[in-house]
């Protein structure tokens, strides 16, 4: 079953943001601000990419969607970050309706080969366990008999951590909230041209059958000052605590994330 993960890397789309901007230029100025981009690369390079590069099943596509307006220095760094990741595909688009562009982007890499397609989404500070693709395919086989009866099915791995990176490393809190990106995948019937981005992740249970798997850490949801969902007033911050030595070892074994590398990357931001 073809498996596609999609990551919007500061794509300036129309929609897809909970906090809007009055003009396109305001959105570009916000997205491409040097401090924001430096932090985006720090999380992407030290948290998102390491477990994807260490997947036990490496047969998947990571589709990275950017804006055609992404400045050259950031585009060069992005290409360098995924240079040794054959699964990575970068697609650039002009500003346009968000869901339309994401669906178009996914369908440029989708095979439409007669098999169901698995799709998951992640932000550039999220992560999945190194066993995620393997476990997702196993789960998909388990629910395959349902696929003939439903256009799409959600496969939800809900256990993991919320993590905030800093020069200290990672402060974390366990989470098992259902339908959390990045370990939520949708399985689409073979000829259905929709994408995982056509659905609000917290509402998939209202749109399709869902199967939730717990008991194994599968996801990390990044927490930082630039999270779109945390820009509005009244959002309650989770209670995070620093990883101890055992926690650091668990993150390394489960997610291939080196917390010392995270700390170094964010310490470098503080010294710039």
Task: Give a description of the structure.
This protein has 272 residues and is α/β, with parallel strands linked by helices. Helix content is 33%, strand content 23%. Strands 3-2-1-4-9-6-10 form a seven-stranded mixed beta sheet, sandwiched between helices. A five-stranded mixed beta sheet has the order 5-11-7-8-12. It starts with a strand and ends with a helix. 37% of the residues are buried. Residues 227-233 have low confidence and may be disordered.
Determine the strand fraction and express it as a percent band. 15-25%
Number of strands: 12
What is the ordering of alpha helices and beta strands? EHHEHEHEEHEEEEEEEHH
**Assembly state:** single chain
Largest sheet: 7 strands, mixed
Runs in which pLDDT lies below 50 for 5 or more consecutive residues are 227-233
Structural class: alpha/beta
Provide the gyration radius in Å.
18 Å
**Cross-sheet strand order for the largest sheet:** 3-2-1-4-9-6-10
What is the CA-CA span between the terminal residues? 45 Å
Shape: globular
| Overall pLDDT metric | 92
What is the helix content? 25-40%
Number of helices: 7
What's the quick description here?
This protein is of the alpha/beta class and 272 residues long. Helices cover 33% and strands 23% of the residues.
